[in-house]
Request: fold
Amino acid sequence: MPSFLRFSLTILLLLGADFIGIAPRSTAALQAPANAAQSDAPPPTATPIAIATPAAPTDPRALYEALNNLRPDGARVYTVKDLTIRRDVVSFTFTKGKLAFLEPLGGRITGAVFSGRGHVIATPHERGERRSLAQFIGVPILDQPFSDAYISFSDGADAELQRQLAQDGVQPVSDPEFIAHWDPLAAGLAPTHSARTMVDWLAAEPIPHFYILLQTDAVGPVEISIDYRREEQVNIGQPHLTDGVRSYDMWASFRAEDSPPTYAEAFLPLDYRVDSTIAEDLSLQGKTTLHLRAGRSGERVVAVELSRHLAVDKIEDENNQPLPYFQNEELSRRDAARRGNDFILAVLPAGKPAGADFHLQISYHGSVIADAGNGAYFVGERGAWYAHIGGEHFTSYDLTFHWPKRLTLVATGIESEAREDAESKSGRWRSETPFPTAGFNLSQYQMASTSGQPKIQVYANKELEEAIMARLQPGGPNTLPPPSMLDHYKDTDHLSGAADPPPAPSPTSALKQLGASVQDSIHFFENVNGAFPFDHLDVAQIPGSFGQGWPGLVYLSTLAFLPPETQERAGLDEWAQSGARDLMPYHEVAHQWWGNVTGAASYRDVWIQEAMANYLALWYADSKKPGQHRLANWLEHYRAELTDKIPGTDHSIEDVGPLVLGPRLSSLKVPDAYGLLIYGKGTWVMHMLREMLRDPGASNGKDPDARFRELLRSILAEHRFRPLSTADFQHAVEQHMTPAMDLEGTHRMDWFFDQWVRGTDLPRYTVKFEVKPRGNAFVVTGKLEQLGTENVFTAAVPLYAVRLAAKPERLGVVVTTGAVTRFQFESRIRPTRIVIDPNLTLLWNKG
Ligand SMILES: [Zn+2]
Reply:
């Protein structure tokens, strides 16, 4: 599951600071792809009274510190009444209270603070975003009184406020009490915002932003930011700190009305060279050389993703000149590991012209590999173990590793230059095609390889990791490895009090069989997707309960290496067992195409890669044992999960939000919504597409799924080593749609994507009918009732006639148009009953 990780990080980075009472988060809102430069010269200070301001330092660190030290100007506190400011669809009214600007620096004012009574109203135009707001606060509009506000900006908001103050003839006064309230808060919040301000001040063409943190009366702290360095400029959300763990609920995120039609990322990666040395104690010392291209002219701050567990030692340019950098500045090492972020900012000596390419060398050290016991190791920080530009970029990689001799290391790419001396081994891996990411795994592995093409090498540990061993002991704990899509563990105590447990099997006993079935699945997937895209495939065991598909490398949970009896003893229920056995290995193999040949264009498109990988895995598993109905069973399982009520609420998971919200689906309230929806509903969406494209009448050896395969191949060919958006995907479906899929007569699939991908309705159906004989046959007339959806919801619902115990006979399809759709069919049998969609072609709520 590579994409989720990458996009969840992007999401986190979109976020601003925490509020009052919560310690500040580190750098924030400057990572996401930025738009074309909005050439707004730094606003002139419209201060009515001339004030002397210190010059802004030119040295980046001194500038950052100077910005951090700015405090509300205690000598100039304004008593305000009905001040208003509007940004995009958000308006703020400072009804009554006190306001002070931050002290100016270099003639510019960068923020303000307010206490008193205020009111915010935000009215997103997009239906999906209004719906998302309602999911969090009960209503589709943010309409809240607030008491405190912290504002940070580079868009001239100070001039706008000062003009109103001047018009009202308000004179500032000294107010020590107000300042005593705000000084510590402003000090805590400054570092996050200083970084964002610094990026603009150092750029040749600043891109303005406006950020406000509100203490609302009813819904707690709310962050609103309008930042033209992001692709979705307007964000409304809420930070949480629960048991020391940070999370963020993004209530709404959308493009500003005046957002430019195209945007350019500040810096794009051309290739990466990564040299990593893993010591005996598993600590990592690394150096990444990033070859970058400037996407916009005059930008000096490069935001680079790197695990918070890796401390930067130095950053140099191509002439080995050291560059200033910022990494979790305000946090201690220990705090950075707990609640820092995974980004560093490197500052170039001068802006580059757009299109210019250059190198950065980043050296770091730290610990990203954990010992899971019994010779098994866990490579954490998957994807952030080297320094790279965030987002989805297909680039080339040149990886070198040095590691302890007792361990085996596998990595993405083709290996060369393998060497070994008395203590250590080393090797070099180069990408044979552009990769979206690079990874490695290491342990005390045994390996088995397959003959045939492509070459598969499966790596497993001799012994089970401690967490699973412990579960196999009598009375063992029910604590578990890290959570994943496969967390369906039984909360059972059936292990306790058992007699001597049978010996634990070695994961290596599954090597041969797993290699053979992975290769078999590749042949199946090649028949759907086209040729296997990489030179070979390494499959490496990883502790825990998750899998991950890298280019040419698959991480597979230990659970997938265990025989069913051991899975059972480890406390896996039947779905978790089937997930580990029938689903996970093939889900990760399918990611070789879906995720590594094409990737998600943004967090809104992650669902395509995950849903397709999952669906193809089930299709493969189903094809191996048709009599076991694995696909149908999983579809029914997902249907039940989607329609079950969330405990303590009146809602089902399906109601939480549409697939296009991606990682935003998971929130403090429903933490596992992402997994349940992306895998469950996403799998159904792919299944419905396949069913609609199917030609059941195909005969003479013709493939009934030819259209679906052609769809998948065309997408992979057209988006080879490029990102794929939901709009691209819809367009491709439209190129392959049949007349029967054209429910709206527009030759478009808007109805399908609006309902199933961008919407959340899940219909329920009931049918009423009567039968009249006509000649040798019967006329069946009736009405199909569609509930639980909006009236515009449309679906093609197949109805089947059943007489006693005979096999159902297809009557026909009813295309629903609203709450009640009438139908008339002719039937050879006199039905006693009508069955709706017995062959699982449509996701609907049977409950
Ligand atoms: Zn996945």
Summary: The longest strand covers residues 90-101. Confidence is low (pLDDT under 50) at residues 1-50, 477-501. The two ends are 31 Å apart (CA to CA).
